[in-house]
Amino acid sequence: xxxxxxxxxxxxxxxxxxxxxxxxxxxxxxxxxxxxxxxxxxxxxxxxxxxxxxxxxxxxxxxxxxxxxxxxxxxxxxxxxxxxxxxxxxxxxxxxxxxxxxxxxxxxxxxxxxxxxxxxxxxxxxxxxxxxxxxxxxxxxxxxxxxxxxxxxxxxxxxxxxxxxxxxxxxxxxxxxxxxxxxxxxxxxxxxxxxxxxxxxxxxxxxxxxxxxxxxxxxxxxxxxxxxxxxxxxxxxxx
Length: 239
Hints:
- This protein has eleven helices and no strands.
- It has helices at 5-10, 18-31, 36-53, 65-82, 84-94, 99-102, 109-144, 153-160, 163-187, 192-196, 200-230.
- The protein starts with a helix and ends in a 9-residue tail after the last helix.
């Protein structure tokens, strides 16, 4: 599957009400620190991914708030569950802080620090790895509409290890890093940067929409490839 950078960056603006959607999405992203608005944002991202799976080039509107909220809660649950192993690793890493105390200083502090650094590195790598599979889980939810679909590990594995999906995920990851790095560099500029700080949540929502489109497209491609290999009927493709 080819990469269409210009089309992806323009995607959020393909709808007639794109200004309203981005503004409301930016406000919700800013208010996400109190958690509940974040569910609406996640629900919208799932809606974007679902449309992209179908090949729809027009982003959805921020409507039907009840459904958005429920979908967002499902996505949040899936993402949190997939992070339980990294969280456990982080918790075990934190135990290294107690080593000098529990051993009455018999173990050098340097050993404790080394264990903490190594554990943090391990938990970070695990977070990225499980986060990768967690995203596929949320895409399953977007496609099927049920929370249980997020833990259909057979499909999660097939999509996650599909080369086409992996390429699209990596493309989305690098693109989001690049945009966020650019925004961070601009906001760090004295005077000019301070005037743009309030735009950061809007940019964050915009990037999330673009990334969700790319993920949805990669997911659909993975299912198409699976259907070609297995000879599944058209009814098994994304509907």
